[in-house]
Structures are given as structure tokens and as C-alpha cells.
Amino acid sequence: MTDNHHEEVAGLLLAAGGGRRLGGRPKALLEHRGQLLVEHAVGVLRAAGCGRIHVVLGARADEVRRRAGLDGCVLVDNPDWAEGMGSSLRAGLGSLAGTGARAALVSLVDQPGIGPAAVARVLGAYEDEKSLVSAAYDGVRGHPVLFGAAHWPGIVATATGDRGARTYLKEHAARIRLVECADVAEPYDIDTEADLRHLE
Known about the structure:
The chain is an alpha/beta fold. Helices cover about 30% and strands about 25% of the residues. The protein has helices at about 5-10, 35-50, 60-65, 85-95, 115-125, 150-160, 165-170; strands spanning about 10-15, 30, 35, 50-55, 75, 105-110, 130-135, 140-150, 175-180. The N and C termini lie far apart (about 35 Å). The model has no long low-confidence stretch (mean pLDDT about 95).
């Protein structure tokens, strides 16, 4: 696989959540291995080979901008972040229009168990703007997900509430290329106080 392939795929990190079940602590600002979670997640996308990275911010966006070292990233504000992941996905895909990106590799800020190895596998399955690729964990679809640009309008049209791209992916299930990642990653979410034990 050539490096120009990597130029065609933008990393899209969804980091807007307010951490409602964490007492309102934005997930982007949680700490992991001496970094803020949003910094860690950007590092994973970089290490996997994403050249361009867009980060969607929402809850306490000003504080995230101030505290997080996100040099070289395009920061996208989602004023509607409280509506759920769908609005962040729409904002992020909208920010990629006109950049020349032919695909978006979407990752979530609250899944630090998914590292560069899994992301690189999904990236490696990219072919063109019609690509639809998803990491799988023991056969179950998870993140990251790669959406070729041909799919963006359909995703934007159906991404509402917390469903994100789920509706679109269900309708196009037969076309999704699943890339097994259970051997290199753990797809847990940091959603509740109990989940904080995963952070180091």
C-alpha cells in the first residue's frame, strides 16, 4: 500500500461528548498515560498513518482547545454536541468537504483500548471513495469505521441522535468489509465511573 493512500484518508476523531454518566466530565479531558484522552486518541490516529486529522469538539470545547496539545489537527466545533454522536459525525464529515479527502476513518475519543494496530488494519483495507470498512471484535462490528466519500451524503442524511452512522451501516451491511481486530485491541468505552479503571 502506497503512502499517497494515507493522504486520501482523513482521521476523524469524535471528541465532543459531555460525559453525562461521569458527572459531566468531558471525555476528551480525562487522563490516560500522562496525556488527555483527546491527545492520546490523536496520537493513535497519527501512529496508524492518518496524515490529516479532524477533531470534533463539543462539551467545554474552549477548555479542550486551551489544555490539549492538538497541533496539526483541524478542530471542528459542534455546537449541537448534546444531541448526540450523530451531530458530531455530521459536523466532522462536513468539515472534510473540499479537503480532497476520499475517505474518513472515524474513531471515538473514549476507546483507548483501540490502538494503532487496529486502526492501521482498517486503514489498510481502504481502496477508494466507495470503501466501507469496519473493525470487528470477534465478528461484531465496532470502531474505527472507514467511510469512503461516496457514502458521506447518505450518512449525513441519516445520522441523528446517538445513532451516528448505525442506520446507514445497517442498510449497507452487505457492503461493509469487516476487519477482525480482537487480537490487537479491546473495544471498551469509558462511559461510567466503573470504566475509569481502564485508564492508566
